[in-house]
Amino acid sequence: MPRFDRTVESVVRSGNCSGCGACALIDPGLSLVLDDDGFNRPVRRLPLSPKNDRQMTDELLASCPGIVVKRPMPDQISGEETRFEPALGHAVSSWQAWATDPETRFRGSSGGVLTALAEWLVDSGRSARVIGAAADASEPRRTVAVQLGRNSDFLQQAGSRYAPVSVAAQGSSLSPDSAFVGKPCEVAAVRQLSEYRGDEERPLLMSFFCAGVPSQLATDRLLSELGIPVGSPLRTLRYRGHGWPGEFYAETVDGAQGSATYDESWGKQLGPSMQWRCKICPDGVGESADIVAGDYWKTDDRGYPEFTDGSGVSALIARTTRGHEAIVAAVDAGVIQADPLDLRQISSIQPYQVERRATLWARLLGRRLAGWKIPRYVGFQLLELAFERPLRSARYMYGSFRRSWVERFRR
Ligand SMILES: Cc1cc2nc3c(=O)[nH]c(=O)nc-3n(C[C@H](O)[C@H](O)[C@H](O)COP(=O)(O)OP(=O)(O)OC[C@H]3O[C@@H](n4cnc5c(N)ncnc54)[C@H](O)[C@@H]3O)c2cc1C
Ligand code: SF4
Ligand code: SF4
Question: CATH number of the domain at 83-215+273-353, out of 3.40.1350, 1.10.3470, 2.60.40, 3.40.640?
Answer without folding.
Answer: 3.40.640
